[in-house]
Amino acid sequence: MKSLYLPLCILIMVSSCKNDTKSSNTATSNNDSITLIERAKAIHERVITLDTHCDINIKNFTDSINYTQNLESQVNLPKMKAGGLDVAWFIVYTGQDTLSTEGYQKAYDNAMSKFNAIHKLVDDIAPNQIELALNSNDVRRISKSGKKVAMIGIENGYPVGTEISNVEKFYNLGARYMSLSHNGHSQLCDSNTGEEDGVWLHNGLSDLGKEVVKEMNRLGMMIDVSHPSKESMRQMIELSKAPIIASHSSARALCDHSRNLDDEQLEWMKQNGGVIQTVAFQAYTNTEKNDARNKAIKDIRKEIATSLGTTWYDWNDMKGLSDDEKNAFFELRAKIIKLADKKAENMSNFPPKVNVSDFVDHIDYMVKKIGLEHVGISSDFDGGGGIEGWSDASETFNVTLELVKRGYTEKEIEMLWSGNLLRVLDEVQAVAQKS
Q: In CATH terms, is domain 45-286+354-434 a member of 3.20.20.150?
């Protein structure tokens, strides 16, 4: 059974019900709310909750500082246990650099350091608390045992370099999905970032990228289209013999950002049998709301960053930073945001945050557009993700609660949280077994 911290709202409602004798209607309403929360809690404990995108910093995978501790990171074992998050896909991410031998080697070394960190966690640091899963049967077995589940995804195929054998090497280390690009065109395919200036490198997939798609099919590794360009995605679907995923994207119709999928892309995913893992990233959930708050809070964040001896960077500002500089900033980013938010709470008429309701709006939209079996859930925690109500893994229950409020059944919630993604993984691995 999952260990959940009861939401504060339950305690508040219970207290209200005990003391309120003025209105039977109010008491009935509160009782109904408590009943709904208790039903949501029971569902949350029964279903397997799976988040397809949790970034990592290797500094949090040492003997002295690691995920057995309740660190500042949005994901760690205490927070997973508190929020009832069962499965975290830890991400082997490398930023885009030059398409050169030196660039590929640096990216490969970075990727290997993250693979090693994840294996250190499950093999040495906390083998009694978390275990690596390689398929859906592993997920169900490990979850049933009471341990948390680790899975591995690769964000950016750049560390593959020009050695296609690296794809199998990464697969053997546990990677079960990979995107072929990130923010910038890789040697494998174009990125969504090409929309900004209209400059494309391959007009979709490169020849090597096409071979990598075939190799991923052969091995049983899911193809992730969250960062590649629309044309890259179209060509991947055309070439792939297996369904694909978008590991952390939302609906472009609700939030016009190139990282989200437009209605045509959603239809492609439906026809392909794939799944879109709706992402709890403020800028990809509600741009207007996010921009208004960021504009209002930017000076506060700058002031706090300065007091902590660093500089505040917006996402566009970070494009020019090295990976080391980005990692150094991310170590303090969450703290800066938290302190700024606390200060903003005491300011009247301050623009609200993007919240869980905004997030589930995207789930609703895509469910109605292409069917529930093609929609899932992701956070992008420790990589910029997080919204009000699901700001870290300890608040995972709030997503289930919002789904229950909107009338989703337990079976539907199970499909959204893990069933759809694991179904795609099964189908991808079945294609590999036939090849």
A: no
